[in-house]
Amino acid sequence: MQEPMLRLNGVNENLRILIETKLSGADSPEKVLQAVLAIFPEFPRENTSEEPELGKASNETWSAEQVSLETYLKLLHDYRILDTALDAMTVHFDGQKTQFDLLRQAAIAGKVAFPLPNENPLGGVISITLEGEHLGDWLEAATWHKGRDVAPRKIKDDNAMGVDGEAATWL
After folding, report:
1. Run of H or E residues at 33
2. What is the CA radius of gyration of the chain?
3. Secondary structure E strands in 10-163
4. Most buried among 87, 150, 151, 160, by the most CB within 10 A?
5. Domain span at residue 82?
6. Tens-digit pLDDT profile for residues 92-116
7. Quick one: CA torsion of 20, 120, 91, 162, rounded to 10 degrees?
8. Residue 166 domain-assigned?
């Protein structure tokens, strides 16, 4: 009988979690909320914002702390993008803190996609900030998969994607 896989969610795991997204211009609060809730269903936000109209653009930031990462991590596993996620989540990793973005256009479809560095994507982003004393270990555990038994990975190793988002070639 196979052991059940350990499911991490970040909450109660000594991490500080901040999820935020900015609404600006013609961003529809209803669509933005739909995107955020598809990846972070426990995000505590009811849509009380008005739809933008001519002369009255959206301009606000929604944020919440200690929102579970369970659905987000499950999607990484389901879509088998764990190595990509490890790389994208650690581009700005400093040992105890990291910040990364997810594309809202992908999120609204229940998918996870990371923008390229310095990209200003149409549809906006959901920003995630994680902070904790053993964050590096947590990130590696949260993105672990059986293939790492054969081809081990570490944060910012030689197999990490390049700063331009291109995949590293495994020899």
Report:
1. helix 29-39
2. 17
3. 16-25, 58-65, 97-103, 125-131
4. 87
5. 16-149
6. 999 999 999 999 999 999 999 999 8
7. 160
8. no
Going from the C-alpha of 81 to that of each of 58, 118, 157, the distances in angstroms are: 33, 21, 17
β-bridge mates for residue 19, sequence order: 64, 128
Q: Whose CA is closest to 34, among 96, 84, 104, 89?
A: 104
Task: From first to last of the 171 residues of the chain, give the pLDDT tens digit.
Answer: 444 456 789 888 889 999 999 998 888 899 999 999 999 999 997 666 777 767 676 788 999 999 999 999 999 999 999 999 999 999 999 999 999 999 999 999 999 999 987 888 889 999 999 999 999 999 999 998 888 777 778 787 776 666 666 666 544
Distance CA 20, CA 91 (A): 18
2 lies in a domain? Answer: no
Question: Strand order in 58-65's β-sheet?
Answer: 58-65, 16-25, 125-131, 97-103
Long-range contacts of the stretch 84-87 (C-beta < 8 A, 24+): 84/114, 84/161, 85/112, 85/114, 85/143, 86/139, 86/140, 86/143, 86/153, 86/155, 86/160, 87/160, 87/161
Is residue 27 domain-resident?
yes
The neighbour count for residue 119, using CB atoms within 10 Å, is: 12
